[in-house]
Amino acid sequence: MEQLNGILERTYFNNTVADYLIALGIIIAGMIIINVFKKLLLKRVGRWADSTATNADNFVINKVDQFGIPALYIFIIYSGINYLHLTDKAQSYLEKGITIVITVLVIQLISTTVIVLLKTYLRQQDNAEEKIKQVSGIKVIINIIIWSVGILFLLDNMGKNVSAIITGLGIGGIAVALAAQNILGDLFNYFVIFFDRPFEIGDFLVIDDKNGVVEHIGIKTTRIKTLSGEQLVFSNSDLTKSRIHNYKRMQRRRVLFRFGVTYQTSHANLKEIPTIMKSIVLEQHPVEFDRSHFAAYGNFSLDFETVYYVLDADYTTYMNIHQAINLRMYEEFEKREIAFAYPTQTLFLNHDGEEDRQPKTELQD
After folding, report:
1. Would you call 273 exposed, middle or buried from its count of C-beta atoms within 10 A (0-12, 13-18, 19+)?
2. In the chain, N or C: fewer CB atoms in 10 Å?
3. What 3-state DSSP class applies to 198?
4. DSSP labels for 212-281?
């Protein structure tokens, strides 16, 4: 027994063996308590949270497991080590190390929370999944801001002159901003696109003489895949300055088309053509008929004008419907012997000073 007491009383680095054992005991006991808490209480609360309608409790429990438990482990280790008699230098290193680790955990918790709240906000809007895909760019900016503030806070707690650092960063930031105006302009316009939503991934756009489907919206550029297969890359600044036709947002497509019949068409058939067109258009789906009229006397034809709406934004749907209308027109006009007009010239010949009213030659332009 005396021999054991002698061992326990031995001193190493200003601490007895007993002190080291007590510190180790504090760490082991604390870890056991944390593990019991995690396996019994936290898991039960987690199962209860899974049965509720809201996801808020699941988020809290997940963050406790992800950040709270490691923080408790760090606190237990710090308590055990702090029980020992440390030198001022060792105590300073310990406190700085704990401060760094806790600060990193807090920064990660804040960053994760902000991203989750942003995604929750986006899920409540239309086309939620497409919008969430674009969060990656904003996530980078959010992390840069949060980590910058967190590091400045850490340096301030460690006794550094943060004011001088901020002043230096401010002067450097102005220089960087002047040197990278275009990049910062694209970054700013990325936020404009993200929050104002002039277009989204999957939208079909026409920009001047270019067109295609939005494939990716990045911090600096937006990529569009054209109908012919190649990829167009636009800077965000160029897009926000352009006049953009977004056909994905089109609820219905107005179709106006004209055709002409020959002057030899009978009066009865002329009166019937608008009714025929209305019937043909209403056979299609999904369409809404607007009007059909004998619009004008042309140079070589009697001109008709028909207007209808395709109640679908898809271009292929529109083309299928218009093709069906064209085929039905040809069929119905053929039945009634109504001839489509095409550019012609009629030549009249005079005999013995009198004008011959009968056409002699018909020439096609």
Report:
1. buried
2. N
3. coil
4. EEEEEE-SSEEEEE-TTS-EEEEEHHHHHHS-EEEGGG-SSEEEEEEEEE-TTS-HHHHHHHHHHHHHHH
Pairwise CA distance, residues 33 & 266, whole Å? 99
pLDDT > 60? residue 179: no
Q: How far is CA 12 from CA 78, 80, 82, 85, 354, in A?
A: 19, 16, 16, 11, 137
Q: What single letter denotes the amino acid at residue 245?
A: H
Residue with tokens 């063996």: 17
Q: Give the domains, in start order, of the chain with CATH numbers.
A: 2-158 (no CATH), 182-249 (2.30.30.60), 253-345 (3.30.70.100)
pLDDT at 68 over 50: yes
Residue 306 forms beta bridges with which residues? 257, 292
Q: Does pTM top 0.70 for this prediction?
A: no
Specify which of 13-17, 174-178, 316-320, 353-357 reaches the highest per-range mean pLDDT.
316-320
Lookup: tokens for 120 = 């929750």
Mind listing the pLDDT tens digit for each residue in 308-332? 999 988 888 999 999 999 999 999 9
Give the pair of three-digit tokens for residue 22. Answer: 């007590």
Whole-angstrom distance, CA of residue 126 vs CA of residue 124? 7
Class of residue 325 by CB neighbours under 10 A (exposed 0-12, middle 13-18, buried 19+) = buried
